[in-house]
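Dear colleagues,

As part of the handover before I leave the project, I'm documenting each prediction I ran so the next person doesn't have to rerun anything. This entry is a single chain, and its sequence is reproduced below.
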Amino acid sequence: MDLRQLRYFLAVAEEGKVTGAARRLNMEQPPLSRQMKLLEEELGVSLFDRSGKRLNLTHAGELLRRRAELLLRQFQETIEEVQEMDDGIHGTLSIGSVVSCFSLLPQRIERFHELYPRVTFRIHEGDHFLLGEQLEKRNIELVVARLPFEAASEPDRYAVLSLPSDPYVALLPGSWPQMAEDRRIEIEALAEYPFLSLKSDLTIGMHELVLKTFREAGYEPNILCECSSVAIILALVAAGIGAAILPKSVIASFPLTSIEVYELTHTPLYSEVGLIWIKDRYLSRIARNFIETFRNEPVGTIQSE
């Protein structure tokens, strides 16, 4: 049994069919079938249940799948670690971010590029669940997201570097009468207006925090619409549909045409933000150095305009 056979085995296990795995591996089906037979003969067990249209793993096959994924990951990490033994840092850093945290990245990337000009970046956008999957698959190494990180894995699987708290602000349509000349508003004043809440099927933390804040003040928000996208909420506010409460840093990433921003008074409401990665997994030298830029220079990246 060698690494090549393990890669073949994982492809068949994931595709559920030898034909699909062969296409994915860019090889003919008969040689791939022979490799799977040879692997089963060498181990003396059946790895696949071939009774149905789809190849399902036996208990032995499931055990091999878990071990094969670990072995191949460790092999790749060993290659990366050896390649990083030289003095220069080069390569690509893949980072995930929720849309509302994009504004925290440009200054960091610019500064990091000045220090390490041979490093390039790949940025992935998504909700917590999708970014958690990308971390597990090693498509990204780091995530910038609101806390708590609502991914599918257990919370203690992740290491979290807390970043400066981000205050919430109220966003009202510019077409509405101006609420206050000093741009300050109390949360109870928002209870009487149609309200737009940020919520998806898988990420509800921000929605629940805002809801809790209204209720602790003795009010129930008049929720007109629950939206899974920050961009949709801002478009609806700009169109005069309703008001919203979002973290202040969000507005640094979007144009605010026809939207008025108000500071919330008498209601301390903050969004916790974190840099997230998987514990007990090898991080590239690039990723480790990028993390240090957050540790060493806690910058004013929370911007209002």
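Residues 106 and 146 are 17 Å apart (CA to CA). The first strand starts at residue 48 and ends at 49.

All the best with the project,
I.
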